[in-house]
Design goal:
Strand order of the largest sheet: 5-6-7-8-9-10-11-12
Strand content: 15-25%
Structural class: alpha/beta
Length: 362
């Protein structure tokens, strides 16, 4: 099944306008400028502001770009979606970047497959990540690395449900699955977030399950499925095509009865995208605030990090992953999905303290 977005020729031919915030300011400078009306809040975050934006106009294959600021920016139709405060996710305020720690209960994940495939090991690892500062524990039992095959329902259930049952009463747990029955069971067991890399497209019952629940859902963009997605990904303009794909997924979720306040998006770094595509999306992450929902970015230890840094071993890509996480945080990512929780939390703390010394507990 080819879940999530291939290029949609109908979308590509529509005339459309996008707004990408630029001219960012941070920390105490941002707070003061936003308060004085000299900057706008990025994604509702009080510590990141912007003074200008790139207006991107797309008409079929023709794309034009120009920078606006001042009164022209104040009256732009997408401004309110960009600056609006995002609703809390699972009780977490999104007035700062939140950390989602990865708990892979699989024998074959690209980075740490087999380390935590036993329930006891996965539970202990989840507790460790929480101690290190993870706000959310993302528990998954099916590898979606490039070239991976589907995991049968029974096997995936056996992997993740004991872990969710043990951790959900102690911590905020997210279930990373494409299967509707596991979404429902995990939510009943205490999972507070559904993270579906297929954006509810793999299983036709998933949207209904989420609609009937009260939990937030993360919709990720991808082109193709895990087994084939990296063979030859193509886009007309990757950043804009991802935006359009996510907008369509949001609309589809809303039509299924899922309130917009419960929707988060993930641009899907590494899912049906070349290394260059990933970098183009990362450079333009502020574009996706125009969707008006919270944004998650997950690039931890992925192949393009290794391509940039020269590190071929996934488990040794911590330094490059932290660099990418900080860049995503600067672009207003509300959630970061990471393997190296302690190091990412410490890096963010130092980064934020440098921008706003009064916030540091020293």
């Amino acid at each position: 099944m080819d879940w999530n977005r291939k290029r949609n020729p109908e979308i590509a031919t529509l005339s459309k306008t996008y707004l990408r915030p630029v001219g960012l300011v941070f920390g105490q400078d941002a707070r003061e400028m936003i308060m004085r009306g000299l900057a706008f809040s990025l994604g509702g975050l009080p510590h990141i502001g912007f003074q200008s934006a790139e207006v991107i106009s797309r008409d079929g294959a023709s794309i034009s770009r120009r920078i606006i600021s001042g009164d022209a920016l104040k009256v732009h139709g997408l401004l309110q979606a960009i600056i609006a405060r995002r609703p809390d996710v699972a009780g977490l305020s999104l007035d700062q970047t939140r950390i989602m720690g990865i708990v892979n209960v699989t024998p074959d994940s690209f980075s740490d497959g087999g380390k935590f495939d036993a329930a006891d090991a996965a539970i202990a690892h989840g507790r460790l990540l929480a101690q290190q500062g993870a706000d959310i524990l993302d528990i998954g039992g099916e590898s979606t690395r490039p070239g991976s095959d589907d995991v049968q329902l029974g096997e995936e259930r056996q992997r993740i449900m004991p872990v969710i049952a043990a951790l959900a009463n102690e911590h905020i747990v997210s279930v990373d699955t494409r299967k509707s029955s596991l979404m429902a069971e995990a939510a009943k067991c205490g999972a507070k977030i559904i993270n579906d890399v297929s954006a509810l497209q793999f299983d036709s019952a998933s949207a209904g399950v989420v609609a009937r629940s009260d939990v937030p859902v993360i919709l990720m963009h991808a082109q193709g499925n895990p087994r084939t997605m990296q063979l030859a990904p193509k886009y007309d303009d990757v950043a804009l095509d991802v935006y359009d794909g996510l907008a369509a997924l949001i609309a589809k979720a809303e039509a299924a009865g899922i309130e917009r306040a419960r929707i988060c998006v993930d641009p899907g770094i590494g899912f049906g995208k070349s290394f260059r595509h990933n970098l183009d999306v990362m450079r333009q992450l502020t574009l996706y605030h125009g969707l008006g929902v919270a944004m998650l970015v997950g690039l931890s230890r992925k192949g393009f990090v290794g391509a940039v840094t020269g590190e071929k071993t996934a488990g040794k890509r911590m330094a490059g992953s932290i660099g990418g996480a900080l860049q995503a945080a600067m672009m207003g990512a509300h959630l970061l999905r990471v393997h190296d929780v302690l190091e990412t939390v410490q890096s963010l703390a130092m980064f934020n303290a440098g921008l706003n010394p009064e916030s540091a507990d020293v």
